[in-house]
């Protein structure tokens, strides 16, 4: 027997009949236009929508028929989606390459629930950490926790990268309206020193607390920034090592590395290897979020996550928001050949949401082999990108409307704004509806001509239409809704991964660059000319950089 056998994941044999049927079906519907589909069914806009757990998803402006949906649902069944969902929720080690359970859903499970990993109920530990976070957050927020010189902490800087940054910064921006305005929150991620320098340039070290957030506590960028922060803090506090305990806390799964760094593990907030970095914003990685919005709002956010988890786990697939979003994403990606998805939140507070989704979606589903290690025979993970509306309309929407590529869009809007100002909000929402309408229905040459457009200009003013979009509407962007929205995308990503039969929870693709950078760092820093063994391009770039450095 092999010493380290390939782990078995409970999965049904993937039958290919639904994929095949969808391929045939695509041929018969590929020429159908949304104009026709809406004309043929005046209730399409009502029928192809789901209203659940406070989110309304209108998916009628996708290029699908009832038959398409039936076949997509068959694909979900054939892929064993139900069993895979149950596997995830019950703590099965579905991240097979890292032999880990995938239990971000346990982070938001109510106290009285039980979720077992290796025979141990993890929910009590989750709540114990949440309680410690709440105590700490309250002490900071009410000024009880003082800095080394006795001054109140007014600035909180989260140092982390990837999932240890994007979730916290996205959530802080999204929930700024609920945040403690007497405090300043900043986020340092890039190993580019400018990120740190700009974050602290107007801050007093005596009033500044750093949260060093890193699942592994070994990430080059985070550790470098944390060392720089330590030096900055110590320099501003008279060099007294004791000050570190008052100005640094850690969030990590790696207590040994945290102590090595010099942070007392009493000031560490833990989480577990069954929480993936990009699924960790509601673990202790969300400490900065909790300090900003307060423990009660943080718990409301967790409740929102949990509501969506329960919906995903229990709702029938035809009325299941994440399942439908996932199925439609696969339809657009694999059958319509759309390489990207634009995420367009019409809510200024969601300005970092597309960036957050980029890691969630692309680190999860940017995979080239199936669970069995065989090359996938389908396109996986589409490229997610986006900007808040209406800014994007005056920049890249031209390409979405009239370019040669098909770009499905997710529009996200809210009935109420946190900042009612005259007519602004109606105008904002009018733009959501107008854009989805324009994308779907376009403008025919006849319509353009009827407006008196000269013949030569007509082709330039024609909008082909037939551009698919989803519209997600919710009442208001509050902590609970943010939780629902993030969980919606998490589970949609999971659904897509199941249909492609890939491991959505590892990220081996980030390793090679890290290793090569470690090799190149000394070649840049070494005062003696190093012997270079790269390719001719990399060798020349390294030499050129060294020369440019010398000339400075
Ligand atoms: O390199 C990618 C990655 O491992 C992400 O998956 C993760 O979110 C990020 O780095 C940061 O990792 P850590 O929290 O361990 O510092």
Task: Summarize this structure as a short list of keywords or feature phrases.
552 residues, alpha/beta, 5-stranded parallel beta sheet, 22 helices, globular, binds 6-O-phosphono-beta-D-fructofuranose
What do these coordinates show?
This protein is α/β, with parallel strands linked by helices and 552 residues long. The protein is 45% helix and 10% strand. A 6-stranded mixed beta sheet has the order 1-2-13-12-10-11, with helices on both faces. A 5-stranded parallel beta sheet has the order 6-5-7-8-9, sandwiched between helices. Strands 3-4 form a two-stranded antiparallel ribbon. The protein is globular, with a radius of gyration of 25 Å. The structure holds 6-O-phosphono-beta-D-fructofuranose. The site of 6-O-phosphono-beta-D-fructofuranose has 14 residues, from loops.
Number of helices: 22
Ligands in the structure? 6-O-phosphono-beta-D-fructofuranose
Give the biggest beta sheet. Answer: 6 strands, mixed
Number of strands: 13
Instruction: Please report the distance between the alpha carbons of the first and last residues.
Output: 60 Å
Would you tell me the overall average pLDDT?
Answer: 96
Strand order, largest beta sheet: 1-2-13-12-10-11
Q: What structural category arises from helix and sheet content?
A: alpha/beta
> Given the C-alpha coordinates, what overall shape results?
globular
Assembly type of the chains comes to single chain
Short structural summary:
The chain is of the alpha/beta class. The protein has helices at residues 17-29, 34-40, 44-47, 66-78, 81-89, 123-141, 166-174, 193-200, 220-236, 244-247, 255-261, 287-293, 295-314, 321-335, 353-365, 397-402, 424-441, 445-450, 458-461, 479-500, 511-525, 536-550; strands at 49-52, 55-58, 116-117, 120-121, 155-159, 184-188, 208-213, 248-252, 268-270, 340-345, 383-385, 409-414, 469-474.
């Amino acid at each position: 027997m092999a010493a380290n056998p390939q782990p078995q994941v409970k999965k049904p044999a993937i039958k290919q009949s639904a994929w095949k049927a969808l391929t045939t079906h695509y041929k018969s519907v590929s020429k159908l236009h949304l104009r026709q589909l809406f004309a043929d069914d005046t209730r399409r806009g009502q029928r192809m929508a789901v209203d659940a757990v406070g989110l309304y998803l209108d998916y009628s402006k996708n290029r699908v028929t009832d038959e398409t949906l039936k076949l997509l649902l068959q694909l979900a069944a054939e892929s064993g989606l139900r069993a895979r969902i149950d596997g995830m929720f019950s703590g099965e080690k579905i991240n097979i390459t890292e032999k880990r359970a995938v239990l971000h859903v346990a982070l938001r499970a109510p106290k009285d629930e039980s979720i077992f990993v290796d025979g141990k109920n993890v929910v009590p530990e989750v709540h114990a950490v949440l309680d410690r976070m709440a105590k700490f957050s309250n002490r900071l927020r009410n000024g009880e926790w003082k800095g080394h010189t006795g001054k109140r902490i007014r600035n909180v800087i989260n140092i982390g990268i990837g999932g240890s940054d994007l979730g916290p910064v996205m959530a802080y921006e999204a929930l700024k309206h609920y945040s403690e305005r007497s405090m300043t929150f900043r986020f340092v991620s890039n190993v580019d020193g400018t990120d740190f320098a700009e974050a602290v340039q107007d801050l007093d070290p005596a009033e500044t607390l750093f949260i060093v957030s890193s699942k592994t506590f070994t990430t080059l960028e985070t550790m470098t920034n944390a060392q720089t922060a330590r030096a900055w803090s110590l320099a501003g506090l008279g060099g007294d090592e004791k000050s570190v305990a008052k100005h640094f806390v850690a969030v990590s799964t790696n207590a040994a590395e945290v102590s090595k760094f010099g942070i007392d593990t009493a000031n560490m907030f833990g989480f577990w290897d069954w929480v993936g970095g990009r699924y960790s914003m509601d673990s202790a990685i969300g400490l900065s979020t909790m300090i900003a919005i307060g423990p009660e709002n943080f718990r409301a956010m967790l409740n929102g996550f949990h509501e969506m988890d329960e919906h995903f786990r229990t709702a029938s697939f035809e009325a299941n928001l994440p399942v439908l979003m996932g199925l439609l994403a696969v339809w657009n990606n694999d059958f319509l050949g759309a390489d990207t998805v634009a995420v367009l939140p019409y809510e200024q507070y969601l300005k970092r949401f597309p960036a957050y989704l980029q890691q969630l979606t692309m680190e999860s589903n940017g995979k080239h082999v199936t669970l069995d290690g065989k090359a996938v025979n389908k396109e996986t993970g589409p490229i997610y990108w986006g900007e808040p509306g209406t800014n994007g309309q005056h920049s890249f929407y031209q390409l979405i409307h009239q370019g040669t590529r098909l770009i499905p869009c997710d529009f996200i809007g809210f009935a109420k704004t946190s900042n009612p100002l005259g007519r602004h909000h109606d105008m904002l929402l009018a733009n959501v509806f107008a854009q989805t309408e324009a994308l779907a229905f376009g403008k025919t040459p006849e319509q353009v001509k009827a407006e008196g457009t000269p013949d030569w200009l007509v082709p330039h003013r024609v909008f082909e239409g037939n551009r698919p979009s989803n519209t997600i509407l919710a009442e208001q962007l509050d902590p609970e809704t943010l939780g629902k929205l993030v969980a919606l995308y998490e589970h949609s990503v999971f659904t897509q991964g199941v249909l492609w039969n890939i491991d959505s929870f590892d990220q081996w693709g980030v390793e090679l660059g890290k290793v090569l950078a470690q090799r190149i760092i000394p070649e840049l820093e070494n005062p003696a000319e190093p012997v270079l063994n790269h390719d001719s391009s990399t060798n020349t770039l390294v030499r050129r950089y060294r020369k440019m450095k010398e000339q400075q």
